[in-house]
Each structure stands twice: as structure tokens, then as C-alpha cells.
Amino acid sequence: MNKPVELATLTGAEAVVEMLKAHGVEMIFGLCGDTSLPLYDALARLGSMKHVLTRDERHAAYMADGYARLSGKVGVCEGPSGGGATYILPGLVEANESSIPVLAINTDVSVSSRGKFTLTELDQRTLMKPLTKWNAVLDRSADIPKVFRKAFESMTTGRPGAAHIALPFDVQNGPVERSEVWADPTLGSFPSRRVAPDPSLVELAAKLLRKAKQPLFICGGGVVLSNAEEDLLNLAEKLCAPVATTISGKGSIDERCAQSVGVVGSNGGTPETRAVVDAADVIVFVGCRAGSVTTERWRHPAAGKARIIHIDVDPAVPGANYPVDVPLIGDARLCLSALNDALEGHRREADLSWVDAKKREKFDKFEALARSEDTPIKPERVVFELQKNLDRDAIVVADPGTPCPYLSAYYVVKGTGRRYFSNRAHGALGYALAASIGAHFARPKVKTVAVMGDGSFGMCVGELETAVRLRLPITFIVISNAVYGWIKAGQKQGYERRYFSVDFGVTDHAKVAEAFGVKSWRVFEPAQLGKVLKEAISLAQPTLVDIVCQPLHEAKAPVSEWVA
Ligand SMILES: Cc1ncc(C[n+]2csc(CCOP(=O)(O)OP(=O)(O)O)c2C)c(N)n1
Questions:
Q1: Which atom of ligand 1 lies nearest, measured to the CA of 402?
Q2: Are strands 543-548 and 395-398 parallel, antiparallel or unpaired?
Q3: 552 lines ligand 1 (CB under 6 A)
Q4: Residue 24 to residue 73: CA distance in whole angstroms
Q5: For 355-386, what is each residue's pLDDT tens digit?
Q6: pTM above 0.70, yes or no
Q7: Is 398 close to ligand 1, i.e. is its CB under 6 Å away?
Q8: How far, in Å, CA of 359 to CA of 357, rounded?
Q9: Residue 379 CA, closest ligand 1 atom number
Q10: Rounded Cα gap, residues 326 and 343, in angstroms
Q11: Please, what sign has the CA dihedral across residues 6, 12, 17, 20?
Q12: Element (H or E) spanning 256, and its range?
């Protein structure tokens, strides 16, 4: 061979960067460490890949998650061994359970140092196995290309999920044949390699729908994930059927349209949306796990009350919680499109004004509270002013606590696709700030807003530095009430107000943010709120609005039920 060896081989670290590029990866979120030095050097030398330095690995994973949700591409995060692996884990498990493809790479101690009480040594294989769709620990540099190909294939086909690769220090330095570095770039986006449903089951489902007196769709995150919004609307119009969603399903349908019911369940549903669920005789779950929150612990719908058609890409989902009449296993878009074809020419005529009346009832109650001039400011007022000041393309990320149920219930998503999301798999506090940073990188031209409680703020505040360093035009909103309010409300409702260890001290979050260099406001009066939000949202820099709010346990009509 005439070529010098250097041209035919790459280092392991270089091969990792080239494999990421070959799958279309353009950015990585992460934090440096001793075991990552070769990888960082390869990233520096090979250029072209944007690296967002974060202030802890948990937030790197949340950023990758937010980026993936909005870009439709695999989100990639990285961190070092030991603490870097344990810290990256919460973000990875949230992504996995939310069906979001996130690849986490933790560098590791050298293969040659294993079993010698080496600082930061940890069994990453066992740690990550139950939390990811697929994971591997590399032992040889030569395996890097095939391990990365497998990771991308696993993350983006079937039910999307997270993957983890442990990359030892010496594996980063060993040789990899350049000719081995290739990839199918379509595996860098999701869903890839879509699968269609069994035609005989499609016919059965169509038969059931032709006879339905009151059909209803309940859509989970799967509709938005597979870009099935148009097929969903076509089918819903053909059947004159209302469309309800889960929190992750917001964006499946334009919430202003006649078909839309809004969010159902115990975290954003209301008695009015529940009534629509209870009226159905045939329910089509689409890309939805029919879990405890959406179904209010499997009471709405009640098992046996309605016939069930369940569409999901994961065969383990239909039948897990309800007796299913027709399971349709496949990509949501392909399943809905097949149903549209099977129902060609069918048109159910029905009056949907009763759905509209239910929505009106729900929003009349909301608006009465939203217009209140009482202090502390009611959460309804926050949603109302946000809705007024954000344009329809804005991205809103909600943390658990007050933000998620109130925004899910009353923030009207205008248009389809991902414009609103929350971390619904584990609901860990402190997700929204970092996820909004990832989301911003995916859609830099639109306004991104993160809404969090003060409990959440305490868990993510360090990443304000990242937002300032990178001059990100994101608006952070803190619902300030000096309490873990959601839990206190649970103590009120279920434990006769025996409040125990849920209150914490008052913090001026605006001052904290100012210290990071974030332009900030603290708002006490409802009348000030609109003006302040308008200004904060209009600025092309990080801004924070600390809103002193009514805690949930003092709300007259809490939006949600406490069901575990
Ligand atoms: C990491 C984590 N720990 C604990 C919880 C349990 N939890 C759910 S809501 C909640 C209270 C949220 O408090 P805060 O962020 O202040 O919002 P609020 O409910 O007061 O609006 C807690 C502690 C959680 N979801 N995540």
C-alpha cells in the first residue's frame, strides 16, 4: 500500500467524531473530564461540530432531549466517567421513557486500568442497561464504528429511545480503520424505517369506526413524533370525532379547531374534558401509553365502557392497560393513513357543538380566575398573559408543579407540531430550563420560554450561566411561592391539611438571575404582569421573570387531582 498509515487510520476519538458527523450530528452538549481529554482534542481538531459546555451533565442530557424533541434529530450529550455517568443518568432515563432519541457518551477509565480501584471506575454497562433502549461499553477501538451504527439504529427505529456508550480512555487512543467509518445518515433522524400496520387489522378497525356512535381520539406524543398531524385531522374530520391529547400529545391538533378537546387526565384535564372521554363509545388511542395520568388511573375511560382501538409502534403498549378490540402496531402516521384509506368515502355526520360548549365552560371558569386582580397572582393569570404575549410559533417548556397542569390545561397551542412540552416520563423538577436551551438550538428563530416553580429553579439555576455565556434569547419564568406546592396541595387534599416539611424560604430569584447577568424582574401585582412579560419576551437576550404566585394549596379550583 502506498498510502502512509496515518491516512488510513484514525484514533478512536477521531472515529467517534466522524461517526457522529456521518449520522448528521451537528451539536453536542456536555462537560469535560479527565477521561474525556482525547475526545475533546478530537472535537477541537476536527472542527465543525458545535459543543455546548454545560454546568452539569444532567442538564447536558436535558438539553440534548429538548434539542431532539424540536429538531427531529438525535440529541447527543457527553460527560466523563464516575460522577459524569451518574449525573447524566436522569436526563437519559427521561428521554428513554419519553421515546426521545438521546445518545449519551460517557468516557471511562482505560480498559487496562479496570479492576484496580482506579479513580472514577464504575460499572457503566450495568448502570445504564435498565435505563436505556440500548447500551454498550467499548473494549476495542476497532468496534467504534459498528457500536455507533447500532446505537443510532436502535434509537431511531421502532419506539425511539435513548442509548448509552461508555468510551474508555485507551479506546479513544487506539486505531480505527478509516474505511470502517460509514453510516446510514437517515438513522440520525426519527422516526426512521417506519413500519406499517397489518392490513387485516386496519380493516377490523375501520369496521369498528364505521359503526361508532361517538368515536374519540386520545393522542399521546406518538402523533407529533411521527408527524401524523395531517392524517389525524383527515381521519377525525371523516369521523366527525373529537380529538383529545395527553400533555406530550399537545400539538397533535390545532387546539383552536372544532375537533380539539384539549388535554385530558389528572394533570391538565378538567371535569369538562373528562366528560368528553366518558361520552365515547369507541376510543382510538394513538401513540399513547394510556398511563395513570392520562386515564386518571384507568377510570376515564373506564375499562369495558368503550371499544378500544390502540395504535402504537411498540407492541407491548396495546393491551397493557385496557382490553383492546383492535391493536394496530406501527408508525402512527402510517397507521392513520391506512385507516384513512380504509375509510375512503365514509363520512359520519355529527354535531360537534357539544364539544365546543364543554370547552367554553372550561375556559369561562379559567378566564374568571385569570382576570382576577387578587394578590398573590393566580397561576391562571400567568398562563393568560403568556398566551397574550407569545406568538403562535413560540416554544413553551413546562416543569412539573404548577406550570405543567396549568399550561397543559389552558395554554392553547395554535398550530400543530411540537410547540409545548414537559418531561412527562419521570416529571423530575428542574428540567425546563435546560430543555429550553436545547430547544432553542433546534429552532433558534422562534421565542423559547421555560416556566418553572421555585423548587425547580433551585435544581437548575446553574445553567443560567450557560444561557448568559451563549447569549441565548430565552425567557425564564419562575412561579414563586416558597413551597413545594404540588405536594402541599396533596397533603391538603388527602391528609387533612397535615402539612409536613414542604415549605422553604423566600428567594428573590430576579436578584439571583441578575447576579448571573440575566435581565430580570420580580412581579407581585397582576396588573404589572402583562407589561413585564411583553418586555422580557421581546428582548434578544436571556431574561427572567420571577412571579410571586398563589400556591396550589390555596387555589379554589385546583386544575388537577392528586393521583399516584
Ligand atoms: C426531582 C424531583 N423530586 C421530587 C419531585 C416530587 N415533586 C413533584 S411536584 C413537587 C413540588 C414542586 O415544587 P415547585 O417547583 O416549587 O412548584 P410548585 O408545585 O410550588 O408550583 C415535588 C417536590 C419531583 N417531581 N422531582
A1: 21
A2: unpaired
A3: yes
A4: 8
A5: 999 999 999 999 999 999 999 999 999 999 99
A6: yes
A7: no
A8: 5
A9: 21
A10: 16
A11: positive
A12: none
